[in-house]
Here is the input.
Amino acid sequence: MWDAGRLAAEILQHGVTVADLPAAYWYLLARECASGVVSNLGDLRQVHVGGEAMSVEGLRLWHQAGLSHVRLLNTYGPTEATVVSSVHECRLSDASE
Here is the structure.
């Protein structure tokens, strides 16, 4: 698993716009952003956080870091990563391959 700085670099390099993170990992990212270690998350516009309860401190850090423009969703489900683990939009052109 990447540290928060590397995660931020990958988000920036690959133009990630939506991320789905476990709460503990999201907290590390929020903490690094608030401390100034990470200063740019590029085009990130939405983050889903789940797997366990989000910390109130993490939410404060997220806003302190100036990330309130990034939509933050706390998610819950009876299982993680088994209901849907990948998505592909099927097109007619897929049938010719």
User: Anything to note?
Assistant: The CA atoms of residues 52 and 66 lie 24 Å apart.
